[in-house]
Structures are given as C-alpha cells and as structure tokens.
Write a structure and sequence with these properties.
two-stranded antiparallel sheet; single chain; 2 strands; globular; mainly alpha
C-alpha cells in the first residue's frame, strides 16, 4: 500500500535503524519463484476424492516401471529452473539489489542462512517420496532435521520502514538521495534489468510454470492416476495405514515437525514399497508427460524465450560468483 510521502530531497539520507531488514521488503518485487510444487501438492491432496476424468483413448502403451523421482524429466522441465538454479537466480537478484541500495547508504542486510532442505531436482518429490535410503532416516523430510538456534531479531527490525527506503527500492517517487538519482523502478527495477540484460523481449516468465501446474492438476484428476492411487491406498491398508494418496501421508501432522520418529520412517518405507508394487510413479509420470506435450507444442516459441532468459540469468549469477 503506498505511503503518503513527498519527493526525496537532495540532502535526505535513509534512516539506518528502519532498514536492517529492508531486503525482506524487496522480496515482493523480486522475480517470481519458479518452483510451486508444495502449493500444487496441497491443492491436489484436497482434490484427491474428486470425480475422475476418463483416460484418453489414444493412450494404449504400458507405462514404464519407474520409482526414482529425482531422475524423472518431464517435457516442460527444459524450460524451468531447478530448485538450486532458482535459489541461485534469487541470490543473484538480491546481490544486484544490494549493489544498488548500497549507493544510497542503505546497510547490507543480514546474510540469509544457506539451507539444503530443498529437493535436488524438479521432480524429486512431485509424486511423493521415492528415496528409500533417505526415508529410512528422514522419513518424509527433505533431510534429517538438525538442531537449530534462531538468532535474536535485532532491535528495530520490526520498525515501520522509512518511506524513503521504499522509494529507493521501488522508485515510486522520482527524486535523489545525496545527489544520486533513483533509477527507474527503483533498485528493484535496476536489479531486474541487470539480471535480464539481453533476454528476449515479450517473455512471459511464468508461462512454463503455469503449464506445469496445469498438467500436474490434470494428471491428478486423470482416471489412470486415480486408479493407481486407489491401488496404492489399498496396499497401504494391508499394513494398517489409511491414506488416500502419498501426498496425504506426507501431510500427516505427526510428520511435519520435531524429531523423526520410528512411526514416520516405517510409514515412509511402506509408502515407497507400495509405490513400487503399484508402479504409481511410472503411471503418474507417463500420464503427466502425455498431458504436457500439447501445451508445449502450442507454446514452443514462447517457451524457448523463457529458456533463453533462464540461461541469461544463470550466466549473470555466475558472473557474480554464484552457482
């Protein structure tokens, strides 16, 4: 929401106390994250009992037997940044943003903690857990939880941001700070331009992600996937476990926080064994691959522009010593 503030005067410098955590404010103007798997999974969990869609008549091939989610490559993956690439590009944006704000006297933000608690590939957990060795120690977690200590929040970090700090970040009000003109779109705009320098014009950066989300939801509603989900659920019931899908098992509140229990690792092991028995991953992957191809063919040129933009962003990140 816009602040009621006047133009920046030449002699006004931003208040440091109000800008300790300014980078969090800038997040709303950062490039959109390309990985929405958790949100997609949550929505599919809620819809697992919906009316199934008929399987397309043209598909008669037997699906391949697959289990390892990390090794899967969907047709649209070529146009998406992986989790680690997305993190690298986001860090590049923050670095470019800080280079700009530093010129206006804003202090550098506290470094964000580096975490390995994310999937290594786009599809590692798209259809639930598949790594039996990891599940034996981490259950449904991406990695085994480690004791952590949360650093104290610095005094003043929750202070209402100085309006001039927002002006520097967003460029909402033209002006100068100590004689330095605010760039078009603020430091956020400058960082985005530098990150995308040389990228094709007219690129819809979210197209590949939207198509990927659409195929994910559509595959979950497909009759073939619904059938294999019922087979997986029946397999789990033979072990005394009642879950409608692997995603509801992963969402079990007992397995979300705290130490990994013997119950969690046992359920996770059974989950993967039932995936293997029913070929759930092979069926789900095959159906979604089939559903992605028409959208890819219809948008090939636009997707190619996204792929080129992704490569340019990664090149910029490498030039900053990232990735």
């Amino acid at each position: 929401m816009p602040h009621q503030a006047g133009r920046l005067g030449r002699q006004h410098a931003p208040h440091r106390r109000a800008t300790v955590e300014w980078l969090d404010l800038a997040a709303r103007w950062a490039p959109a994250a390309t990985l929405a798997t958790l949100a997609m999974a949550a929505t599919l969990v809620a819809g697992c009992g919906s009316t199934r869609s008929p399987a397309p008549a043209a598909s008669t091939a037997r699906p391949p037997v697959l289990l390892d989610g990390a090794s899967l490559h969907l047709p649209l993956d070529r146009y998406l940044l992986g989790p680690r690439e997305s993190a690298t590009v986001a860090q590049a944006y923050r670095t470019l943003l800080a280079q700009c704000t530093r010129r206006f006297g804003l202090p550098d933000p506290r470094p964000r903690p580096v975490t390995s608690d994310q999937p290594a590939t786009l599809n590692e957990r798209r259809y639930g857990i598949t790594d039996a060795a990891l599940a034996a120690t981490a259950g449904y977690r991406v990695s085994k939880p480690r004791p952590t200590s949360i650093p104290p929040t610095p005094a003043g970090s929750a202070t209402t941001p100085d309006p001039r700090t927002l002006d520097i970040l967003t460029g909402r009000h033209a002006g100068t700070v100590d004689g330095r003109p605010i760039p078009d779109g603020g430091c956020s705009g400058e960082a985005k331009r530098r990150l995308n320098a040389g990228a094709p014009a007219g690129t819809d950066p979210d197209l590949a992600q939207r198509l990927s989300q659409t195929s994910y939801f559509a595959a979950g509603r497909d009759g073939r996937v619904q059938e294999v989900l019922r087979a997986w659920s029946a397999c789990m019931r033979t072990h005394g476990l009642r879950y409608s899908s692997p995603l509801t098992a992963a969402a079990d509140p007992r397995f979300r926080t705290g130490p990994v229990s013997a119950t969690e690792t046992a359920v996770a092991a059974t989950d993967i064994a039932c995936k293997r028995q029913t070929n759930l991953v092979g069926v789900w992957f095959s159906v979604e691959s089939e559903l992605q191809r028409p959208g890819l063919a219809a948008n090939r040129n636009a997707l190619e522009r996204i792929r080129q933009t992704n490569q340019i962003q990664l090149k910029v990140a490498r030039s900053l010593g990232l990735g």
